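Q: what sequence does this backbone want?
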């Protein structure tokens, strides 16, 4: 039997240029000459066969949860993912279970390396190439995405690059302006609506249900593909979104902020969304995300993956009922804020697509990517936890 011998979690810091925070204090936006310092984690699961499962991602709350259960994993068989997932999912029942994602992804990376295959082959490959959509930074007032015309110009630029779809993250915080968002919806729709699938994601910024209706009706008029996280309920109220669905025609995409398999299922069963959101990092790893995809398939719905990353690509390659890979966050004047930890050419920047607007699933064993461990260790914050 294979055994886990040691788990290491390393927090590290990286810098992003020309990126700051919007007036809400939390969402990132373009800010010329600013330098934003961000932190994330690198997970290593060592085994007695000399193969290490790895994943880079997660946040401080997830790391705190990993600290709660990592000792339990030492001595366990890393190939018994379903049993480990079930036990940890129960152990974290009082919390949001975010710590389960990075560990499960690393366990899948181990399995792929152990069986000398990419993860999508272990899941059952459906395709290895699929379309992407450009998902913008939140709007700014700094000379970037600062007007309806700027969003339309960038949409046209993305179309020329090969993107088939485009998602607007509009203004938030002190910049929240429903009229401006409505103008932007129409400006982008008029410019590229006949050639691209268009989406709107206000990121739960608008204060009222009335705001959500106004923006939704504008999406109806412009023929948008979906409407996501429309207002300040936080994306969690089944009743509110069921009511919103009754008042607008544009399909809703919800459950990004709903945690747990059962809660996602309830959201669908109660007709509170049209598309289902999933994220391997947020939703219990690859194991959890694939459960959501199969649940959605059983209801005849599509699952759409939140954010980019190698785990997301592996999942999408094994799923029929999904449409796009999210390249996020992108902007005409600054780079995506993903950590620069990949060797061998893997990227989730704006130019990751080919001329047909497609991305490929990495073909190597496990996640199929090679991490730059020299960079990770050089930029470690000193917060390194070892469990053995």
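A:
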């Amino acid at each position: 039997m294979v055994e886990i011998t040691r788990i290491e979690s390393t927090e590290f810091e990286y810098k992003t240029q020309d990126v700051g925070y919007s007036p809400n204090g939390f969402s990132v936006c373009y800010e010329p000459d600013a330098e934003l310092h961000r932190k994330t984690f690198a997970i290593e699961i060592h085994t007695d066969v000399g193969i290490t499962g790895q994943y880079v991602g997660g946040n401080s709350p997830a790391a705190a949860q990993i600290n709660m259960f990592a000792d339990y994993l030492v001595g366990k068989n890393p190939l018994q993912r379903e049993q480990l997932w079930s036990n940890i999912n129960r152990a974290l029942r009082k919390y949001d279970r975010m710590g389960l994602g990075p560990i499960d992804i690393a366990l899948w990376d181990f399995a792929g390396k152990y069986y000398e295959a990419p993860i999508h082959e272990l899941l059952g490959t459906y395709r290895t190439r699929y379309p992407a959509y450009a998902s913008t930074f939140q709007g700014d007032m700094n000379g970037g995405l600062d007007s309806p015309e700027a969003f339309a110009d960038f949409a046209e630029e993305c179309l020329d690059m090969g993107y088939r779809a485009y998602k607007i993250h509009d203004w938030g915080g002190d910049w929240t302006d429903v009229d401006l968002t409505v103008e932007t919806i129409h400006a982008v729709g008029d410019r590229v609506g006949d050639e691209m699938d268009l989406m709107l994601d206000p990121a739960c910024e608008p204060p009222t249900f009335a705001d959500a209706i106004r923006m939704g009706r504008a999406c109806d008029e412009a023929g948008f593909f979906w409407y996501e996280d429309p207002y300040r309920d936080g994306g969690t109220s089944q009743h509110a979104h069921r009511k919103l669905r009754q008042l607008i025609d544009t399909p809703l995409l919800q459950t990004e902020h709903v945690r747990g398999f059962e809660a996602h299922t309830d959201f669908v069963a109660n007709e509170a969304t049209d598309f289902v959101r999933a994220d391997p990092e947020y939703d219990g790893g690859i194991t959890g995300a694939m459960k959501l995809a199969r649940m959605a398939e059983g209801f005849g719905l599509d699952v759409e993956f939140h954010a980019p990353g190698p785990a997301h690509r592996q999942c999408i390659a094994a799923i029929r009922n999904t449409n796009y890979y999210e390249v996020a966050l992108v902007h005409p004047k600054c780079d995506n804020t993903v950590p620069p930890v990949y060797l061998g050419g893997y990227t989730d920047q704006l130019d990751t697509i080919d001329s047909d607007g497609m991305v490929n699933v990495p073909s190597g064993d496990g996640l199929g990517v090679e991490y730059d461990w020299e960079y990770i260790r050089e930029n470690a914050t000193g917060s390194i936890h070892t469990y053995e």
